[in-house]
Every structure is written in structure tokens, then in C-alpha cells.
Amino acid sequence: GIFPWRRGGLTAFVYFFPRHSSVKADEAAGTAPFHLDLWFYFTLQNWVLDFGRPIAMLVFPLEWFPLNKPSVGDYFHMAYNIITPFLLLKLIERCPRTLPRSLIYVSIITFIMGASIHLVGDSVNHRLIFSGYQNHLSVRENPIIKNLKPETLIDSFELLYYYDEYLGHSMWYIPFFLILFMYFSGCFTPTKAESSMPGAALLLVVPRIQYLVTEGQIFILFIFTSFAMLALVLHQKRKRLFLDSNGLFLFYSFALALLLVALWVAWLWNDPVLRKKYPGVIYVPEPWAFSTLQSWAQA
């Protein structure tokens, strides 16, 4: 015919660049049931593999994991880097709305790369603690670092810190929150009666996201995502679309995290040492920086 398109080629083109439009009532009609299993696994892996990682490093004897070998925390991190992307993909599969596959794939790949970069930097950082490294101080102010010769070695440690705290965290958390927001955008229903959470969901709305925000130093990303979620809820409310149980769970989890982060910052607002380490306008101390500060204060 006049057009050189073939059905197979056009299908492949559409598959690679899927349609991604605003939520409509007919799309929202297919409301998904509450994903109790996935949210439970997310909560469990967050507490065990992420929050519990540095704790496990302190609990297990150092003789079992020599300083020149991966620690138990590193193995926790490796498991996290495999399990979390898998859970994110399963979550996207259950979304009632068709999401852009290409963006999902790129986000997952970036997530894995960022988390892996962080794995290396975080591993070295926690190993340095056994040698006297103090997390509440900057790299150059640390007693075991500032006297290194030649001084260019200090630059290398600062580069490692940059990969760990900035590049790794950015490549890890930006796609993570992007995927959660894209999933959240499909969690709307035209039936107000379906806008409620089961009782079991309340047990899973536990403090977990705030640890990612504080330890990952991603408050700006977190607050931006939170406001984007709120704006989307208000926008869809005009169309008489309401959050389903999964959307409510995410929304309440973010709201609780915001409250806990605010309380954490208020508690440490006047700490002079942490203020020096975090001199910017956004002051959100890391839990493990506070932990090492307390350890050195009691020593």
C-alpha cells in the first residue's frame, strides 16, 4: 500500500514506546486488591537487609568476616540489590494501569547500578569504622584520614565518599521513587467504597521510609515525591477518582515518614557537631552518623 508499515514493525514500535496518558475512569475501574504479600516483603527486606545491615556487621564476630573480605552486611546488601528490583517489577505487574515499559526497564537498570555503586562505597566505609573512622566527621577531618601521605590519597577517599553518598544514592533512589510514583499514579478507583485499607495494611504502615530518607540523604527527592503524590491525589479527586487500598498504603507511608523525619530533625536541631557535618540549608542528619557520634562521646 501507500504506507510502508507492517503490522509486526508497528507493533514493535508501539511496544517500545507504550502509550502513557493520565488516569481515566475506565483505566481505574480495574482496581487491584491490596498486595499484602508484596508490601510485607518490602517491609521485611527494608528492615532486615537495609536497616539491619550495619547492625549485623556489629553483631557478627569480625573473625568470621576479615576486613579484606566482604562483610555480612555486604551480603545483606547484595541480597537487597537482587530482591528489591524483583519486588518492584512484581509491583508494576500488578498495577491496574499500563505503565511505560521502557522507562520501567531503564529505571530498574539504573537502580541496580546505583545500589551496586553504593555497595562498594558503603562496604569500605563501614570497614574503616573498625580502624577509627568517625561517621559524624567529614572525610578530611577524620583523624585516620587527614594525616595520610601523600595527600592525594585523601582525594581518593573523598572520591569514594562521593560515589557512596552522592552518585550511588542518586542512581539508587531516584529510579526507586520514580517507580513508586508511577505505580501510585495507577492506584485510583471511581468507587469511593474501595478507597479503604484492610486491617492488615495498618500493621505494615510502620516506620521504614524515613530511614531511607535520613540515611540516604534524599530529603529533597522525598519531599518532591510526596508533594507530587499529594498534587496527583487532589487532581484526580476533581475527576471523582479516589485512591484504592494500595494507593492509600503508599500515601500514608509517605505521610508517616515525613512526620518522623521532622521529629528526627527537631530532636537534633541544635547539635553543633552534626551541624558542622551538614552545613547546608537542608539539615537531615544520618542515623549512623549520630550513632558514631554517641559512641565517640561515651569513649
Features:
299 residues, disordered N terminus, mainly alpha, 13 helices, elongated, single chain
What would you note in describing this structure?
The protein is an all-alpha fold and 299 residues long. It has one domain (33-298). Helices cover 67% and strands 1% of the residues. It contains 13 helices and two strands. The protein has helices at 7-16, 25-28, 36-59, 72-93, 101-129, 143-146, 152-184, 199-204, 209-215, 219-238, 245-267, 272-277, 287-298, and strands spanning 188-189, 242-243. A two-stranded antiparallel sheet has the order 1-2. The longest helix is centred in the middle third of the chain and has 33 residues, at 152-184. The chain starts with 6 loop residues before the first helix and ends with a helix.
Discrete helix count: 13
User: What is the typical, i.e. mean, pLDDT?
Assistant: 84
**Distance from first to last alpha carbon:** 83 Å
Give the strand order of the largest sheet, numbering strands 1, 2, ... along the chain: 1-2
Sheet with most strands: 2 strands, antiparallel
What spatial form do the alpha-carbon principal axes imply?
elongated
Structural class: mainly alpha
- Rg on CA atoms, Å: 22 Å
Oligomer: single chain
Number of E-state strands = 2
Q: Can you write the helix and strand succession as a string?
A: HHHHHHHEHHHEHHH
Count structural domains.
1
* Helicity level: 55-70%
Binned strand content? under 5%
Runs in which pLDDT lies below 50 for 5 or more consecutive residues are 1-29
